[in-house]
Amino acid sequence: MRFGILKELTEKRVAITPDFVKKLVAQKHEVVFEKGCGEGAALVDELFVAEGAKAADRAEVLAAADVITTIIPLPESDLDQVKKGAVLISQFQPFADDSICEKLASKGLTALSMDMIPRSTIAQAMDVLSSMASIAGYKAVLTAADHLPRYMPMLSTAAGTIRPAKMLVLGAGVAGLQAIATGRRLGAMVEAFDTRAAAKEEVMSLGAKFVEVEGASDDKAAGGYAVEQTEEYKQRQADLIFQKVSKADIVITTAQLRGRPAPLLVNEEMLKAMPQGAVLIDLAASTGGNVAFSKHREVVKTHGVTIVGNSELADEVPEHASQLFSRNVENFLKHKDFLSEEGFSFDFEEDIFGSACIVYNGEVRFGAPALTK
Ligand code: NAD
């Protein structure tokens, strides 16, 4: 099969790195790449060529490839140039965009959505959501440090003692836990909150304090994802968060609800109560945001605080983000020999493949029983 690698239109990352090219070529596949596709991630064209890939223009890659892997789904204008029957691998987020499946099906394509792979132990090595969230959590703390007009660690100097920064993490999933670990390494005093009971132990194991609100709804059937909370719970949560936010120098928010707008956790009143110069990093900005006024990929200054909205912070560590994304795809294709020299084996009964394949040969599969359990 002929694999295509494209330059991402909005990202520095690239979906397939040269080490994966080497393995594809060893498996007798061909690889064509758009010139400059890896430049943003410090992966120059020569590295792809050295592993056996051929350089081409974007239009040539789109027209020639049997399989195209991207981090962000291709825009409509590119889809029109892809050959019928091609396999696209990306993060299509069909829960968030209900038109995407129809669009891909109407072009006669097959779509494998990496974000639809179950968050199970066996699938950890192919979990792009975790790979990217972990980097985003790390970078969120560094971005906060950049904007903060203060030190993070406690420092005893000849001129006096500097107190450590107070950091609050709202949402202690993959990104939140990495933010806690990074904040602790930089010397901040860290507190964290999550609606999932399981998060408490993880937060405490990283040396942070868990902010507890009694009575959260947890649903084992939600596959580890958080569920919508009752109005009463939300009020209690808001009161406690108000107290914590009003003392925080840094707030990092990561709370997402799959297929729904992100919950608003920090409202305008809370922003007004924060110390001047405080920084908020909102990783949920692209799905509505956890912080009032936050905008995806924008820095907003209001009420004396800085709000950085960015749900793609992994792109700010492009080399390692590319490497991990590429390995996740490689592990996915290796699983049960989905990909062999002959091509793909489409086994919809297999949980991981059945979940990822949202469109098959022009037919929408998203919503099929294997995908919804
Ligand atoms: P996510 O990005 O969907 O959400 C981030 C965090 O925000 C979650 O911890 C969620 O509970 C929390 N949250 C949602 N609403 C909130 C609210 N109103 N207030 C406070 N916090 C709120 O989550 P994620 O990081 O992608 O992880 C999702 C789940 O999958 C977690 O349970 C995680 O442990 C699990 N997981 C499992 C594996 C595995 O076993 N392979 C791998 C990765 C993640």
Q: In this structure, how is the largest beta sheet organized?
A: 8 strands, mixed
Over the alpha carbons, how many angstroms does the gyration radius reach?
Answer: 22 Å
The CATH topology of the largest domain is given as Rossmann fold
Described by the principal axes of the CA atoms, the overall outline is globular
Euclidean distance between termini CA atoms: 32 Å
Helix content: 25-40%
User: Count of DSSP E strands?
Assistant: 19
- Proportion of β residues? 15-25%
Number of helices: 13
According to CATH, the homologous superfamily of the largest domain is: NAD(P)-binding Rossmann-like Domain
Mean pLDDT metric: 94
Strand arrangement, largest sheet?
A: 3-2-1-4-5-6-18-19
The CATH C-level class name of the largest domain = Alpha Beta
Key words describing this protein structure:
2 domains, Rossmann fold, seven-stranded mixed β-sheet, eight-stranded mixed β-sheet, alpha/beta, NAD, binds nicotinamide-adenine-dinucleotide, 373 residues
